Amino acid sequence: MSINLRKSRVKDTVAWIKYPEIDGFEVKIKYLSKKDLLALGKRCTVKQMDVQNPGQTKEDIDQDQYRKLVAKEVLLDWKGLTIAGAKVLISLGEDFDDAEEVEATEDNKKLLLEESINFDSWFQNVMSSLTHFRAKKTEEELDNLN
């Protein structure tokens, strides 16, 4: 029997994944295949004059646009991020209640991607690695057995 992998591919794989550095903080992430990742990057490509080669243009990724799209389309939601947890990721003032939950707004998601090296590195790794999504599915299947 011949299996057509293209027809069998699941288009939208989404999972809640635990962020390892903060207890209780889980992030809802949409998996991006290589093709999806390249398409996202292409949507953020800008042409600029190449200062090293006058008269020629070069293409670069608009990092701000990239983070904006990722925050909207890939980093879908989160739960369990408190001010205390956010202080582990970015520099915040002391005028907040550490137990207060931080809402997953577009601006807050984009800020974490911009300002937190640890969060951004972890997120970039997770969003394009099926291993994390498969592991999550296996955990859910085991939970359903109990």
Note down, in words, how this protein is organized.
The chain has 146 residues and is an alpha+beta fold. It has a domain at 13-33 and 63-138. Helices cover 47% and strands 17% of the residues. The strands form two sheets. A three-stranded antiparallel beta sheet has the order 1-2-5. Strand 1 (14-18) and strand 2 (26-30) form a beta hairpin.
What's the SSE blueprint?
Elements: H1 5-8, E1 14-18, E2 26-30, H2 34-43, E3 45-49, E4 57-61, H3 63-73, E5 75-79, H4 83-89, H5 106-115, H6 117-127, H7 130-145
Structural class based on helices, strands and sheet pairing: alpha+beta
How would the global form be characterised? flat
Query: How much is the radius of gyration in Å?
Result: 19 Å
Ranges where pLDDT stays below 50 over 5 or more residues in a row are: none
* H/E topology pattern: HEEHEEHEHHHH
Question: How far apart, in Å, are the first and last alpha carbons?
Answer: 35 Å
- Strand fraction: 15-25%
Mean pLDDT: 85
| Strand arrangement across the biggest beta sheet | 1-2-5
Specify the biggest β-sheet: 3 strands, antiparallel
